[in-house]
Amino acid sequence: MKYWLLCLPREDILNCMRVGTFGLSRKVLIGHVRKGDRIVCCAGKGDWKIVGLGTATSDYYVDDSKLFLKEGVFPDRFDFEAVSIPSESEVDIKAILDKLSFVKDLAFWAVSFRIGIVKLSKSDWDLIRDRARVSQAALK
Asked: How far apart are alpha carbons 84 and 61 in whole angstroms?
C-alpha cells in the first residue's frame, strides 16, 4: 500500500471528492496509484487545509471525459472515495510542515505541493490521519 496527497484549490479538490475521481494531464506519479492506496485531500492555493481522507478504488487509467471544473483535459486518472473532514477539524498543513518527510526546505515548502500529487511516507499518513481524527475503520 502507498500513500498519496492530492492538492488542488479547494473548489477543485471538493469536486474531485464529490465525483470520486482525480485527474491530471501527466502520468508521472499518478500512474503509480493502485486500488487500496490511501489518499489525503488537500485544499491548496492559499487555503492549505486537509479536507478529506480516503482510499483509491481503482488503479490508474486514461479517460478524457469532462468531469472537472478547471478547463482542460485531465486524462490520467484514478477513482477514490474520501471521508470529508468537518471544517472545524481540517488540518492546517502549515502547522505540520516541519514534520512532513517530503518537505525538504521549509523556505520553499509550497513547491512540494505544486504538481497536484505527492507520495507520502506511512509516518506522514499516520500524522495527518491522527490530526484529522479519522479512524482507520472509516476508510474503507
From this structure: 24
User: What CATH code is carried by the domain that includes residue 67?
Assistant: 3.10.590.10
The residue segments making up the domain with residue 38 are 3-138
**Model confidence pLDDT, tens digit, residues 12-25:** 999 999 999 999 98
Percent of the chain with pLDDT over 90: 69
The answer to whether 55 and 140 have CB atoms below 8 angstroms apart is: yes
For the chain, how many structural domains are there in total? 1
pLDDT tens column, 93-117? 999 999 999 998 888 888 888 889 9
* C-alpha–C-alpha distance, residues 43 and 57, integer Å: 21
Cβ neighbours of residue 109 closer than 8 Å, sequence gap 6 or more: 97, 103
